[in-house]
Amino acid sequence: FVFQMQMLDKFPMEGGQKDPKQRIIPFLPGKILFRRSHIRDVAVKRLIPIDEYCKALIQLPPYISQCEEVLQFFETRPDDLTPPKE
Q: CA 57, CA 26: separation in Å to the nearest integer?
């Protein structure tokens, strides 16, 4: 959500703030409320919409898809290389 807000602030025209028809930045799938016992189910349900969001994001023109915010968003983190065993 924070990343999405950064993108909309940085690219207001591409985010459709002046004209919704001009929006090219994809919509972020909405949050889903869940109980602790449903964490995995929710993650699985969100996998496809978030995957589609990421694919749409990197297909945008280079001035957006290769901006610092996008590069940082997709940057590998230590937890990605050695994820928790839970």
A: 7
| Cα-based distances in Å from 77 to 43, 69, 81 | 19, 15, 7
Give the mean pLDDT per block of 10 residues along the chain (86 residues): 94 95 90 60 80 95 97 89 73
* pLDDT of res. 37: 58
Distance CA 13, CA 20 (A): 9
Instruction: Give the Cα separation of 29 and 53 in Å (integer).
Output: 8
Domains and CATH numbers, the chain: 1-77 (3.30.1520.10)
**CA–CA distance, 14 with 61 (Å, rounded to integer):** 10
- Residue located via tokens 């280079």: 62
Contacts of 18 (CB under 8 A, 6+ apart): 12
